[in-house]
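A quick aside before the break. I want you to see a complete sequence-to-structure record at least once, exactly as it would be stored in a machine-readable document. Don't worry about memorizing anything.
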Amino acid sequence: MTGDFTPLAEAMGRAPRFVLFAGKGGVGKTTCAAGAALACAATGQRTLVFSTDPAHSLADCLGCAAGGDPSPVPGQPGLDLMEIDAGRSLEQFRARHGPALTDLLETVTYLTKEEASGFAQLGLPGIDELMGLGRIADLLAESHYQRLVWDSAPTGHTLRLLALPDLLDEWVRFLATLQAKHAYVIERLAGGRLGEPAGDLLFQLKRMIRRFRAILSDRTQTGVLVTTVAEPVAVAEIKRLIDSLDAGSLPLLSVVVNHWMADPGQCLHCRTRRAAQETQVQRLRWLFPHLPLILLPEQAEAIAGTTALSDLLGTTVPGLHAGGSGS
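That is the input. The structure line, written in tokens, reads:
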């Protein structure tokens, strides 16, 4: 059977350069992200698909190995894969900025040098994941990839990740205020000045936060595909997710309903399940009339590997084209 995922491929043809797949765990979000990236690469667009889920499964879905840097997916020209490691990003942050953060904390607080150094090793709350987001921002700023597809973590983790810029902005503002007050006292009483590395660190953090905020809110560059299944609990969770994304002004593209019983046949169980699914689909249409629904049929077997994904997408994907308005 081919072409079952064609509606998803067509949606990617209309989507902006950067697409985020978000949703509840276990609904097929990773499979959809992998299939969407494969469809983009099949049109000749240089594509990167990456994951920020601590329990990475993207490489398993594509049937290959992955690391913290982009690497080619075997047998798929133009498609690269990356699994972002927040812990590795934190270590890189510590190596680069640890001394400056220690200096800043020692200077503007009552912490001793040893205490400030220990705090700096812990880092600001969420700084490891922000470094991962900074890596995404760097990739988007480059022209190497025409399309980027983000397989995010399940709902709760994703919302926390997207809220990090606001949290860290408060931390940076607090530290900057302490730094400014200290610098004023030093200049008035001793004629000295606070070291530049601490100021550079705060500037870089502010710049990273601004960049990522700008990317997420840019409808010409970014779009979100919310993935779910037609079940009451999943729909309730998706409503909370979409409400949160709307509140954060993230550009939503559509809702992908996975595991749809396209042809229940004469099986009583299947027909009963299909009727229950139709109720939830109608609920989704009522809740989000502004968002188109993409119904992806349930498969008889688990989808793994690029061959299986390609079969689902069809050998020729009608309507798929480079770029898009994101509308």
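Two observations worth writing down. The first helix runs from residue 6 to 14. The radius of gyration is 23 Å. We'll return to this after the break.
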